Amino acid sequence: MGLDDRKLAVLRAIVEDYVSTQEPVGSKALVERHQLGVSPATVRNDMAVLEEEGYIRQPHTSAGRVPTDRGYRLFVDRLSRVKPLSPAERRAIERFLVGAVDLDDVVHRTVRLLAQLTRQVAVVQYPSLARSSVRHLELVPISTTRLMLVMIADTGRVEQRLVELPGPVPADDVTDLRRLINEKLANARLSETPPLVQALVEEAPTGLRPTMTTLATVLLETLVERHEERIALAGTANLTRGGLLDFQGSLRPILEALEEEVVLLKLIGETEPSTTRVLIGDENEFDNLRAASVVSTGYGPGTTIVGGLGVLGPTRMDYPGNIATVRAVARYVGELLAQN
Amino acid sequence: MGLDDRKLAVLRAIVEDYVSTQEPVGSKALVERHQLGVSPATVRNDMAVLEEEGYIRQPHTSAGRVPTDRGYRLFVDRLSRVKPLSPAERRAIERFLVGAVDLDDVVHRTVRLLAQLTRQVAVVQYPSLARSSVRHLELVPISTTRLMLVMIADTGRVEQRLVELPGPVPADDVTDLRRLINEKLANARLSETPPLVQALVEEAPTGLRPTMTTLATVLLETLVERHEERIALAGTANLTRGGLLDFQGSLRPILEALEEEVVLLKLIGETEPSTTRVLIGDENEFDNLRAASVVSTGYGPGTTIVGGLGVLGPTRMDYPGNIATVRAVARYVGELLAQN
DNA sequence: ACTGGCACTCGCTACAGTCGAGTGCCAGGA
DNA sequence: TCCTGGCACTCGACTGTAGCGAGTGCCAGT
């Protein structure tokens, strides 16, 4: 089980070569391209050990070696340093994110930026409502029996719901309702609103009771309980790079998985600690994504986290580079959010 | 140049067979599967004529015939009747669209529904701001020097912009600004707002002048001039049906095109008359989409059109079926919008 | 412990041969 | 005049064979 330094160096070399050439790498090519200071035969012996331990494998008997998911895992954990971003990349990030007019714009720019920099599929979760606070709730009369309820979160996210009222409500009442609701809910974390909303209904003047009840129902059901998460996606065309070699020739399962918001949320949304997460191959829970890896992290203003973002690509991806980019972008987005 | 009835019948049969089998169709198979009442030899003669006229072609010398874009065009224009929807499909549409909580929800449900029914890529344009009227403009104070401007359109679409004010503005002033703006702009078509906004600035009391100017700028620049169009997409995984036969093996160009909102808007957004539009193969203006066809139509409450929706797939698609589905879905969505 | 040498494996490519679906053409018949 | 059966032909798809070469495992020697 001893993996001495040289064997690790061999594994690192295999990963790096395979990632860049996309072809199984043999012992001879390895010693030519890296300063290992030993002969191909020695490397072969090391390779045999690495294969026994499950870090690499041979596609066919007479071919070179390819890293396994386990090999990538070891590489990511112990053999790679996060690449510093080039100044050009830093500038690209700043240039790209400056001038966004609203949250939608920020998210769209971010996801395209990520896709472009990493040349992978990029995923950005909108700031989660569950982790947001209410900044303001607005009631806009649409007709006498209809209101539009607009919620503005501190993250800049805006959600609206059409509310069918039990009966006609005069303008003055709407003003009162608006005041009551905001007094009670403004600055409350959305996850802590249920008791507050309950109190709102109970404390409401009799005249406003039915309307308030309706509003409370909509508020709780569509904004709190079924906490509406949103996702932006970009760069699916990047899946076709590397011909049909990655994803063993069928994009089908990948594209299907990418259409499911639930799947994407699980992939990038569950970043508990503020660290970068790397899921390699079948480490993720979805069969459709066995051949894919995900690099993701949380983002948010300051040290809090309000959502996740990341990239998805073939297991054969540039982990150090992608990790660096994902982190950097998350940091910039966080700063941008903090400014608002 | 005479295309008698039988030749047209042969073309129709070729299109139908090729669409369902995805394989070049030969003269013998044709007479077996269709009641043409003539021998294969006769069919071959007809095929030769059809090929001369450019309606069909042979992938290789010793293969059957395949319709050309021109052949599909003739088929769509003269040889097919729009398939009536099955009751199951009608029910699916109703079931799918009931219970949408807001416009976002309507659009998302619609696009998924379309993708599912047609098994193609579905595209839905959000109700265009250019064709909407202002229902209400709300100003929400974020801090003393920041407002959030929320615009609610009659189509249910809600847009918000963060506005950096030139100086602190007291709450009473915000109330005044809100009143002034709504008095002037409520119910105005967005395309007709520029002179109204201009007037707003000119008529504003001196104290509110600078703030009003800032608001006017944001309003015009981000909501009117650069009229923000939005698009929802679903069913990209359907592109992989039919293996790699459609799109000659490379999804790349298609996926790239689908990432460009501008492209999608041109494909489905320019539906001037209220009729269904079919773009076959290179009839569309994008090189990337040479191998694709688009079926699209406009939708909106009543007879007005506020946006477009449609499906995109291989030229080898079920035109009559897709046309019927696209129309039906557009009609249902229109009714749904009319209710709000 | 590393190295050079050697036999071996096996996927890839090229090539030849066969098969068969499909065609174009033509002469004969309604 | 139009349709039909017959026939020779084309050419892609598939199969089998052979040679090549990258890469390996093993072993004896340093």
From TrEMBL, chains A, B:
Keywords: Repressor, Stress response, Transcription, Transcription regulation. One of its GO terms (molecular function) is DNA binding. One of its GO terms (biological process) is negative regulation of DNA-templated transcription. SUPFAM superfamilies: GAF domain-like, Winged helix' DNA-binding domain. Residues 104-321 form the Heat-inducible transcription repressor HrcA C-terminal domain. Residues 18-62 form the HTH deoR-type domain. InterPro entries: DeoR_HTH, GAF-like_dom_sf, HrcA, HrcA_C, WH-like_DNA-bd_sf, WH_DNA-bd_sf, WHTH_transcript_rep_HrcA_IDD. Belongs to the HrcA family. This is Heat-inducible transcription repressor HrcA. It comes from Micromonospora inaquosa. The gene is hrcA.
